[in-house]
Design goal:
single chain, mainly beta, 7-stranded antiparallel beta sheet, 4-stranded antiparallel beta sheet, 2 helices, 14 strands, 11% helix, globular
Length: 245
Amino acid sequence: MKLDKDFFSENIKTLFYALIIAVIIRSLFIQPFYIPSSSMEPTLLVGDRLFVTKYSYGYSKHSFPFSPPILNKRIFFSNPERGDVIVFKTPADNRTDYIKRLVGLPGDRVQFIDANLYLNNSEIMKSKVKNKTKINCGSRLIDVYRFEEKLPNGKKFHTVYLKDYTYQNSDVFTVPDNHYFFLGDNRDCSKDSRFLSSVGYVHKDNLVGKAQFIFFSTDKKIGNIFAFWKWHKSIRFNRTFDRIN
C-alpha cells in the first residue's frame, strides 16, 4: 500500500493542532495536578488527582507551561478568598508547584500562640472532631488531633495537629502588599509560609489556580495503577468528583 505525502502532512497538522488546543486549555482554563505529599491531609491525600481552574485569579506568566516571560504582571486579576486551596509557584525558585490553603491576605498579621492560630490578633476558632487518629507525614504515621477550623469569612475546613503540638509559638507574620500567606492543613507536617527561607509570602503573580475537585484517587501503598487486580482496593472510588473545600 502506497502512502502519499499528504497522508503524513495531514497527520502532522492534526497532531500540531491538538497540541495547540491542549496548551490553550491547560493555560487558560483547567489543569490536572497530582498530590505527592501529605501536607494537605486530611483535605487532600497522597494519590489524589485534581483539577485546578486557571482563570479563577486571572493570568500571569506562571499560567503557561514553563512560565515564559510573556506577561510582566497578572492580568484580569480576581482576589482570592481566605480558605481557598490554591496551587502556586514557590518564591524560592518560581518553578516548583505547591498546593496550600490561603489564610493571610495582604496586610494581615498571622501568628501561632500556644499552638493556636491567630489572625489580626483574634484566635481562629477550632472545634475538636477526633481525639485519636493517625495521619501520614511523609513515610511515617503520626498521632494527631483533628479539628474543624472556621476563618473570619465563615469558611470551614478540617485540620490536624500533632498531639504534642510541636509548633507552639511563632513570630508575627505581617503579610506584605500583593502577597499571601499559606498554611498546610496538616499543620505539623507542612512546609508553607511559616518557613520564610523556602516558601514565605507568595506574590499574587505566583498564583497558578484554584483547586476545584478530585477526579481520581489511588492509594499507592496498596498498588499502582498497573496492578489491575488490586484496583478494587487501591482506587478510592469514594473520593471521585469530590469538591475541594
